[in-house]
Design brief:
Mean pLDDT of chain B: 95
Low-confidence stretches of chain B: none
CATH topology of the largest domain in chain B: Aldehyde Oxidoreductase, domain 4
CATH architecture of the largest domain in chain A: Roll
Shape of chain A: globular
Number of domains of chain B: 2
CATH superfamily of the largest domain in chain B: Aldehyde oxidase/xanthine dehydrogenase, molybdopterin binding domain
Largest interface: A-B, 26 and 23 residues
Distance between the termini of chain B: 18 Å
CATH topology of the largest domain in chain A: Ubiquitin-like (UB roll)
Mean pLDDT of chain A: 96
Number of domains of chain A: 2
Strand order of the largest sheet of chain B: 1-9-10-11
Structural class of chain A: alpha+beta
Largest sheet of chain A: 5 strands, mixed
Radius of gyration of chain A: 16 Å
Oligomer: heterodimer
Low-confidence stretches of chain A: none
CATH class of the largest domain in chain A: Alpha Beta
Strand content of chain A: 15-25%
CATH superfamily of the largest domain in chain A: Beta-grasp domain
Number of helices of chain B: 6
Bound molecules: FE2/S2 (inorganic) cluster
Order of helices and strands of chain B: EEEHEHEEEHEEEHEHH
Helix content of chain A: 25-40%
Largest sheet of chain B: 4 strands, mixed
Chain lengths: 160, 334
């Protein structure tokens, strides 16, 4: 099959790849570019593990064709820490014991980030709603919900 | 037609490990040339925190800080044998094996230190910070770093140890069939409160209050993490999850996350966890196994709560709306 060129920004750095037409963004990120932070849980849009943020919107990378991302700004969990300092969400997940096997964690964190970017002080219901597209087998969700609420509080304290 | 409330209670005894023909786990410990300690295991950390617990157990036994211990569970082909990480057995079986291996390694370490300090090994103790001191004369000391260097480059000693923990196979008594499949039991009790819609058969779990008796909690935060996740999973087993809804007929099983159901973050019951610590006689530092057992008592508790609410006994899992409606219909037909 003919390859198509695609160019986008991944966590602030320029990427250019030739990919087979029809390649998912998840596949391109993990197997072409080497960012394995988005996970492939179901490859059909039901688990949320592959969640990334594209031009500010939360998207499932398993259902997004890489060639539609030309010129886009893509953010993944791998790009959240700055200068070796964890993002408040990563710190909160760690402190709240909100991760066990960790497979859902990158998707959860991106879903939470998309929420906090829009709604810096969410209610519990808003957090639950934001995470409801993401499946976790291990934690029982409560520690994850608490981590997101804690990160939101930490952020608003820093801003104040 | 109405929403009916019910409350159910259930208590369980749960064996730590499962002995179907001898239940062994091995561990090997050796020091690196700079006095870190490698623990080699075939037991797997799948998120329950095995590596952290084994590092704590090894560190406590040898007398070094936990961050001086490296756990290698990389390869079940080349690692020492383990029966597996299941049946809540990891901490108990592997932990005991690690203690034995670490004790042997500690003995060699003290012997090398004794030669360096020109004292008897039995006169030495560790300070838990990475040093070996002469009892009663702590100014006379040597760091474990230097002991390891000496063992490797001067004295030709391997600071290492072998550990094997085995619960031997128990055969049933001919007369009674009684046997002893495990030596160590954890316990739990759950009270569940539910609402059942007797028109749709839908069950909502309002709350689960759990008490777990798990021996000594070697890492209380990680124990809590297991118990919170396990309690949610117990509700999931009780009401949602199955691969064979019409077992033994295998048709209509879930094939993906659209059909294989679990409660999501919006379906959480109010959950309470209480931990009772009663150290076990044969567990590593008194630990039992909390992993799998913590997802069990919610299931009979929810079944009992459903009975309390609408008077039907559902004895097949999961307790689906369909099963409840069929049972209610049968009950009405008398
Ligand atoms: S892998 Fe994309 S939603 Fe599951
Ligand atoms: S931590 Fe294992 S799936 Fe969420």
């Amino acid at each position: 099959m003919a390859k198509v060129p695609v160019q986008f920004t991944l966590n602030g750095s320029e990427k250019a790849e030739f990919i087979e037409s029809g390649t998912t963004l998840l596949h391109a990120l993990r197997d072409k570019i080497g960012d394995t932070s988005p996970k492939g849980g179901c490859h059909q849009g039901t688990c949320g593990a592959c969640s990334v943020i594209i031009d500010g919107e939360l998207r499932l990378s398993c259902l997004t064709l890489a060639e539609t991302c030309d010129g886009a700004d893509i953010r993944t969990t791998a790009g959240l820490a700055e200068g070796g300092v964890l993002h408040p969400l990563q710190r909160a997940f760690l402190d709240a014991f909100a991760t066990q096997c960790g497979f859902c964690t990158p998707g959860m964190i991106m879903a939470a980030k998309a929420l906090l970017d829009r709604t810096p002080n969410p209610s519990r219901e808003e957090v639950v709603e934001a995470l409801s597209g993401n499946i976790c087998r291990c934690t029982g969700y409560e520690p994850i919900i608490q981590a997101v609420l804690t990160a939101a509080r930490a952020d608003s304290q820093n801003a104040a | 037609m109405a929403i009916r409330r019910g409350r159910g209670v259930a208590a369980i005894n749960y064996p730590t490990g499962m002995n179907l023909g001898g239940d062994p786990t091995q561990a090997l410990v050796h020091s690196t040339p700079t006095g870190n300690f490698m623990v080699t295991l075939s037991s797997v950390d799948l998120g329950q925190g095995m590596k952290q617990i084994m590092a704590q157990i090894c560190a406590e036994t040898i007398g070094v800080p936990t961050d001086r211990v490296i756990i290698d569970t990389a390869d079940t082909d080349t690692g020492p044998h383990c029966m597996g990480t299941f049946a809540s057995r990891g901490t108990h079986r592997a932990g005991n094996a690690v203690i034995q291996a670490a004790k042997e390694a500690r003995q060699v370490m003290l012997e090398v230190a004794a030669e360096e300090l020109e004292v008897n090994a039995s006169d030495l103790e560790t300070d838990g910070q990475g040093n070996i001191l002469v009892k009663g004369a702590p100014q006379k000391s040597i760091s474990i770093f230097d002991v390891a260097l000496s063992a490797h480059f001067k004295r030709g000693r391997s600071i290492s140890g072998r550990g094997m923990f085995l619960i031997p196979r128990s055969y049933p008594e001919k007369e009674t069939g009684a046997m002893k499949p495990s030596t160590c039991y954890a316990h739990a009790c759950t009270v569940a409160e539910v609402e059942v819609d007797d028109e749709t058969g839908e069950v909502t779990v309002l709350s689960v209050k759990n008490v777990f008796e798990i021996g000594r909690a070697l890492n209380p935060k990680m124990v809590e993490q297991q118990l919170v996740g396990g309690s949610w999973m117990g509700i999931s087993h009780a009401l949602y999850e199955t691969t064979e809804p019409y077992y033994p007929n295998r048709d209509h099983g879930g094939t993906d996350f659209n059909q294989y159901l679990m409660p999501g973050p919006g379906d959480l019951a109010e959950t309470e966890i209480i931990v009772l610590e009663r150290p076990s006689a044969d567990g590593p530092f008194g630990a039992k196994g909390p992993g799998e057992m913590c997802a069990n008592p919610q299931i009979p508790a929810v079944a009992n709560a459903v009975f309390d609410a609408v008077g039907v006994r559902i004895d097949t899992l999961p307790i689906t709306p369909e099963r409840i409606l069929r049972a209610l219909k049968a009950q009405a037909a008398g």
